[in-house]
Design brief:
Elements (H helix, E strand, L loop, with lengths): L6 E5 L7 H13 L4 E8 H7 L3 H15 L6 E7 L13 E5 L12 H8 L5 E3 L8 E3 L1 H29 L5 E5 L9 H13 L6 E3 L16 H22 L6 E5 L8 H11 L3 E4 L2 H14 L1 H16 L1 H5 L16 H5 L3 H8 L10 H8 L2 H7 L1 H9 L1 H21 L3
Parallel strand pairs: 1-2, 1-10, 2-3, 3-4, 4-7, 7-8, 8-9, 9-10
Antiparallel strand pairs: 5-6
Helix pairs in contact: 1-3, 1-17, 4-5, 5-6, 6-7, 7-8, 8-17, 9-10, 9-13, 9-17
Bound molecules: zinc ion.
């Protein structure tokens, strides 16, 4: 039985050049007492955008692990897969993020709804959950509403899980269920109903990615009510611990936070909550590494800086098309985007200061950062020219990738003292 460790860290490596730099950040965490394992994640959407194939992620991860002598576990995550996209990931992945967000709100298959409500009378009424001060009070109508909304998604998760298990053998991979790419957040009582349903469906999930309250815009910090986030995050952890016992779900079941890069202000609340419940965490990042590549190019000066400026100019030109698929998770004020001519006049320091995610830096520009976050297609279209430049600027690029993941993510989340 492949069992995911307590602390795991999802990294995305869009151009398959940073696996070593990413692994180095995990090694630093381990050296500092935090037993974190890396998970390389790449979605079907990213592969399509880049023109890469799932086995390339496995090759890059294996090569980095060999080169650095990493002797702990590591995984390759087929991120946000669905029934129609999973097959290409069967050979190379051992972690599957089953995305059922699109099925939320669709009617469930015959009788499932009535059967669920009849079977789960324990969910109706007063429910005391250890770790939550106020007992939940869930009316029957509310259980019915949540079941009606999520049962179809749960059934689809079961279908996809069984498809993977049929191909790989149950127990040979880690299952995550994700519901984060949807409009409304799932509250802790909803999470409980969803977990009960997933247990009924026989999905041995080890991580679950709900949609949390607040905005998770790409590349920039969390926007929302931090106190509410912390309360709900704590309640989610309590609900998971309770559901594991009540519904016989995997002991190591934990939350997966799809960060959309760099949600620095929720790291302290998350860390407090994990300590309080002695809970594990999977934190997923992806685009933050691609942005460090651009920062590394700029910091290298010369041709690297020129290419970083070229990427910005193209991204600005194609802003509408690049932003469209991410409309729900970006907030760009076009008036705050400098013109290509202005950026062309920037020094390396100016470019880096506007892009690097240091909210205390007066030059930091979250609009530039969000645009470039969704602008990786521009680099993909440069093809070999981009990859050659990455290699030429490798020193600066890998230094930025490692420092970003360790100092800004792993350390605040997992490293004590
Ligand atoms: Zn996600």
């Amino acid at each position: 039985m492949v069992t995911l460790e307590k602390y795991s860290f999802g990294v995305g490596d869009r151009f398959a050049h940073q696996a070593k730099a990413q692994l180095r950040a995990c090694m630093m965490a381990v050296e500092n007492g935090a037993a974190v394992v890396p998970v390389w994640n790449k979605s079907f959407r990213e592969h399509t955008m880049i023109g890469s194939q799932p086995p390339e992620v496995r090759l890059a991860a294996d090569a980095a692990v060999r080169a650095l002598g990493w002797d702990r576990p590591y995984y390759v995550d087929a991120d946000h897969i669905r029934l129609e996209t999973v097959d290409a990931f069967i050979a190379s992945s051992d972690f599957y993020t089953i995305d059922v967000a699109d099925a939320i709100g669709r009617p469930a298959e015959a009788n499932a709804f009535q059967e669920f409500v009849a079977r789960h009378t324990e969910l109706v009424g007063q429910l005391s959950i250890p770790g939550i001060e106020q007992p939940f009070h869930i009316e029957r109508a509310e259980v019915e509403r949540v079941a009606a909304k999520y049962l179809r998604a749960v059934q689809e998760a079961g279908q996809i899980y069984r498809h993977i298990a049929g191909a790989k053998g149950a127990g040979n991979f880690i299952t995550e269920v994700s519901m984060d790419e949807t409009d409304s957040p799932q509250t802790p009582p909803e999470l409980l109903v969803i977990l009960a349903a997933l247990a009924d469906e026989g999905v041995p999930l080890q991580t679950i990615a709900p949609k949390f309250t607040g905005r998770f815009n790409k590349g920039v910090d969390y926007v929302g009510d931090l106190a509410q986030f912390e309360r709900e995050f704590n309640d989610d952890l309590a609900v998971i611990a309770y559901a594991v016992k009540q519904y016989d779900l995997p002991q190591n079941l934990k939350l997966s936070v799809h960060s959309g890069s760099d949600k620095f202000s929720i790291y302290a609340p998350i860390r407090r909550a994990l300590q309080r419940f002695d809970a594990g965490l999977h934190l997923k990042t992806a685009g933050t590494t691609w942005l460090e590549e651009v920062i590394g190019l700029a910091e290298s000066g010369g041709a690297g800086l020129e290419m970083a400026k070229e990427i910005y100019a193209h991204a600005l030109e194609k802003q509408e098309a690049l932003c469209a698929p991410y409309a729900a998770v970006i907030d760009i004020d076009a008036n705050q985007l400098p013109s290509a001519a202005v950026v062309n006049g920037w020094t390396a320091e100016q470019f880096v200061a506007s892009l690097r995610h240091d909210p205390t830096c007066p030059q930091f520009n979250p609009h530039v950062r969000q645009l470039l976050h969704v602008g990786y297609k521009v680099a993909a279209q440069m093809g070999e020219r981009y990859l050659t430049m990455l290699e030429a600027c490798e020193d600066k690029v890998s230094e930025n990738v490692t420092t970003n993941l360790y100092e800004r993510h792993l350390k605040p989340l997992f490293v004590t003292g």
